[in-house]
């Protein structure tokens, strides 16, 4: 299959996915926001800030012109931070219409509205495209995907046929794509695991052990699933690649920006400085805020998210956050 494809966003993930598609023989149009990034990709075949050491294939063409990048492309892949999804869709909307799929790969929730990103897409895309919204998610660090290390993810969409087209688009010998029918669960799994990755990072930064990490991951998954089910997701989705799978990789890998931000927070560094030094998106920070609000609105108990919220937004000492979790009223594991 040789599709006309555009990737919107030339950060770590957009670049890695562009390289994957180009290596499958597709001509990829890659939109980058910064002009120096466009030039570096086209002239030096590298994207040194986001994916050093990776050679960008000749069949990727970078451009700073968003409308030109997406015009007449069959498949669009969105790889900008969650909070930028609405804005880039608005900007490209005038030239959209005939696409087979618009695939979001960002993992987050919109800060102002609390919406899932597919809901944002449905609001912004022109008529017929609303039904061709899709999502690619799962445990997949860009640094490993671009080095062809075996990776498995899921593709989901409102319509099964669209999910299958996304599966066909990305399937490669080192990149296995399963289809999935639970759009809500897949999106929530990808967004909420970043909160728990921040927390396991904090735990590592405080010098706590593997027991602590296992507890946070397991109880974190329980509260992710509780909120997910309250929002219409299927419970089993949280046991799959987009739930537990992504939780495991993000909570344990040193490639995770969320985990690394958490480690620094646990070591006493302040969040504004951490974000400045990271120079890449740390989605879990804003997702913590949104999930905290959603848990209150929906009456869902999310004690780990609540403590993360206090640490990130109320300058609570992380050690106190852990103590609060340990000293909660005694209870059964499953209620
Ligand atoms: N890096 C990874 O391994 C993976 C990342 N993701 C998700 O993909 C999304 C993008 O992440 P990364 O590429 O890693 O981030 P990044 O920080 O490496 O790159 C973000 C890109 O978006 C651009 N950007 C930033 N603000 C923007 C704005 N307001 N408008 C338009 N463009 C803007 C930046 O210039 C940069 O090119 C995130 O939601 C992330 O959770 C998903 C799977 C894997
Ligand atoms: O979602 C990811 C891997 O699946 C990337 O996680 P980070 O944003 O924490 O790096």
UniProtKB/TrEMBL annotation:
NADPH binds at residues 12-13, 33-34, 50, 107, 142, 257, 281, 283. GO terms for cellular component: cytosol. It catalyses: sn-glycerol 3-phosphate + NADP(+) = dihydroxyacetone phosphate + NADPH + H(+); sn-glycerol 3-phosphate + NAD(+) = dihydroxyacetone phosphate + NADH + H(+). One of its GO terms (biological process) is glycerophospholipid metabolic process. It is found in: Cytoplasm. It comes from the Bacteria. Its EC number is 1.1.1.94. PANTHER family: GLYCEROL-3-PHOSPHATE DEHYDROGENASE, GLYCEROL-3-PHOSPHATE DEHYDROGENASE [NAD(+)] 2, CHLOROPLASTIC. This is Glycerol-3-phosphate dehydrogenase [NAD(P)+]. The gene is gpsA.
